[in-house]
Design brief:
It contains eight helices and eight strands; from the N terminus they run βααβαβαββαβαααββ. It has about 250 residues and is an alpha/beta fold. It has one domain: 3-Layer(aba) Sandwich (Rossmann fold), CATH 3.40.50. Helix 5 links the parallel strand 5 and strand 6. Helix 5 packs parallel to helix 8. The longest helix is centred in the last third of the chain and has 16 residues. It binds S-adenosylmethionine. The site of S-adenosylmethionine has 19 residues, from loops.
C-alpha cells in the first residue's frame, strides 16, 4: 500500500543548521516511522475522533475559505489536511515522519485532492517559501519538542503567517495546579483504558514518560513570547488544551 518510491514536495532544509540544533527528525516517544504503526494510528484514532467534525469546527473558528492558505504542522495521516484541502485554496502538510505523510497523501489522492504540498520537515526545519499563510493548525504535535525548542518552533511558526494570521494549537498540556499530579495521571490513563482500550492507554503512558507535554502557564508564556496574542485558551478533561491565537 505504501509507496516508498514516492517523494514529498520538499524535504527539511539541511543547510546552515548548527550542530547543536535539536534533531526533530528523530522519533520521540511513540514511534511513527513505520508503515504498520502509522496505519494502526489512523485506524485507532478514527475510532474515537471525528476528523471531519473537528476539522470543520477549526475551519470555522479560523474563518478559512476557498481563498485561504493553511499550514498543517505535524499533519500526521491528514486528520485536518484532508478536510482543510476541500475548503481552502492550498494546504501545506508538514511532518517529520515520511510514513505519516505518505499515508496522508494516499488518502488525499484517493479523493482527488491536488492542492496539497507534502513537506518532510517540522517546526524547526520547515521553510515556508510561499507567501505568508493565512493560518497554521497544529494538532497534538508540539509536545514532541522540549520547551526550549518549542519556543524556537513557535517563533518560526509566527514568522510564516501573514499579518493578523491565525494559529490553532491543540495539545496535551498539564495543569499548573499540580496537587496530586500522580492521582490525576493515573485517572487519565484509567479513563483512556476504559473509553478507548489498552493500546491507546499504552501510548498515554509513553506520552507522560518520554514526550514533552508541558504546563499550561509555560505554554501560554511560550505562545506570547513567540509573538502570538492568545484569543482563547481552553482546558478540558484529559489534559486537552486548545489555543486560538492571532499572529504579529
Ligand atoms: C500524535 S500525531 C498527530 C498527527 C495529526 N496532527 C493528528 O491530528 O492526528 C503527532 C505528529 O507530529 C509529528 N511530529 C513529531 N515531531 C514533530 C516536529 N518537530 N514538527 C512537526 N511534526 C512533528 C509526528 O510525526 C506525528 O505525525
Amino acid at each position: 500500500m505504501m509507496n516508498y518510491a514516492w517523494k514529498p514536495d520538499s524535504h527539511k532544509n539541511m543547510f546552515n543548521i548548527p550542530e547543536w540544533t535539536y534533531d526533530e527528525m528523530k522519533q520521540t516517544g511513540v514511534d511513527y516511522s513505520g508503515i504498520e504503526q502509522v496505519q494502526r494510528y489512523d485506524d485507532m484514532h478514527q475510532k474515537f475522533r471525528d476528523y471531519e467534525k473537528n476539522s470543520d469546527a477549526i475551519i470555522k473558528i479560523l474563518d478559512l475559505d476557498s481563498n485561504s492558505t493553511v499550514i498543517d504542522m505535524g499533519a500526521g495521516t491528514g486528520a485536518f489536511t484532508l478536510y482543510a484541502a476541500k475548503h481552502c485554496k492550498k494546504v501545506y502538510a508538514v511532518d517529520i515522519s515520511l510514513a505519516m505523510l505518505n499515508l496522508c497523501r494516499i488518502k488525499c489522492d484517493r479523493i482527488g485532492l491536488s492542492n496539497i504540498s507534502y513537506c518532510h520537515s517540522g517546526f524547526l526545519t520547515y521553510d515556508h517559501e510561499a507567501d505568508p499563510a493565512d493560518a497554521m493548525v497544529s494538532i497534538a504535535s508540539l509536545h514532541h519538542l522540549p520547551d526550549f525548542w518549542k519556543l524556537v518552533g513557535l517563533t518560526r511558526a509566527a514568522e510564516m503567517l501573514k499579518a493578523g494570521g491565525r494559529f490553532f494549537l491543540f495539545d496535551i498540556v498539564f495543569p499548573s495546579a499540580a496537587d496530586d499530579m500522580e492521582g490525576k495521571l493515573n485517572a487519565w490513563v484509567r479513563s483512556i483504558t476504559e473509553q478507548s482500550g489498552p493500546e491507546l492507554a499504552a501510548e498515554a503512558k509513553i506520552h507522560i514518560r518520554e514526550e514533552y507535554s508541558t504546563y499550561d502557564w509555560v505554554m501560554e508564556g511560550l505562545l506570547e513570547r513567540a509573538g502570538f496574542k492568545i484569543e482563547s485558551a481552553e482546558y478540558s478533561e484529559g489534559f486537552q488544551a486548545t489555543y486560538v491565537c492571532s499572529g504579529r
